[in-house]
């Protein structure tokens, strides 16, 4: 692999790690989202009870959905890395395309293709923004030539 990330676990273990991380992010985000939504949709005196009841019902589902997406994306990412023998931004784009298509497979071929293209475009935007941000912030760390002494003439 060209630029392997040696700070991460090997591929079989990274799938479980990514699944757990995605589940945790979805559960925390779902708790916030559904807590606010439950409080807003409850009567004035029962906002806390309404928020807690919606959180208990919906936050684990949101966490599970995030976990499935993260686990499937990581599985496809490992498979694409093994198939291409490279580690670049195309792996994430291809993995996003495949993940979107598989998650929408029950909606038929047209829906799966639409979802696959949408996820591929979304991951392309993420990767493009990542490259842009890294270029902007790494601009100052580029090695530069020292200034020429005043007594020397350029040739």
In a few lines, what is going on in this structure?
The protein is an all-alpha fold and 155 residues long. 72% of the residues lie in helices and 0% in strands.
Tally of DSSP helical segments: 4
Instruction: Give the terminus-to-terminus CA distance.
Output: 43 Å
List the helices and strands in order. Answer: HHHH
Count the E strands. Answer: 0
Overall average residue pLDDT: 89
> What is the rounded Rg?
23 Å
Q: Estimate what percentage of residues fall within beta strands.
A: under 5%
Helix content: over 70%
Largest sheet: none
Low-confidence residue ranges: none
Shape: extended
**Structural class from helices and strands?**
mainly alpha
How would you describe the overall organization of this protein?
- The protein has 155 residues and is mainly α.
- It is built from four helices and no strands.
- It has helices at residues 11-40, 47-84, 89-103, 109-137.
- The protein starts with 10 loop residues before the first helix and ends in an 18-residue tail after the last helix.
- The model has no long low-confidence stretch (mean pLDDT 89).
């Amino acid at each position: 692999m060209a630029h392997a990330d040696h700070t991460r676990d090997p591929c079989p273990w990274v799938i479980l790690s990514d699944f757990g991380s995605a589940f945790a992010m979805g559960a925390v985000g779902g708790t916030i989202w559904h807590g606010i939504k439950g409080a807003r949709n409850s009567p004035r005196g029962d906002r806390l009870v309404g928020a807690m009841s919606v959180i208990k019902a919906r936050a684990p589902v949101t966490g599970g959905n995030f976990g499935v997406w993260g686990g499937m994306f990581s599985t496809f990412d490992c498979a694409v890395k093994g198939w291409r023998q490279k580690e670049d931004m195309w792996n994430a784009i291809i993995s996003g395309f495949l993940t979107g298509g598989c998650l929408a497979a029950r909606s038929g071929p047209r829906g799966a293709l639409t979802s696959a293209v949408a996820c591929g475009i979304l991951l392309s935007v993420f990767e493009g923004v990542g490259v842009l941000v890294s270029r902007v912030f790494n601009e100052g760390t580029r090695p530069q030539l020292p200034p020429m002494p005043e007594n020397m003439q350029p040739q």
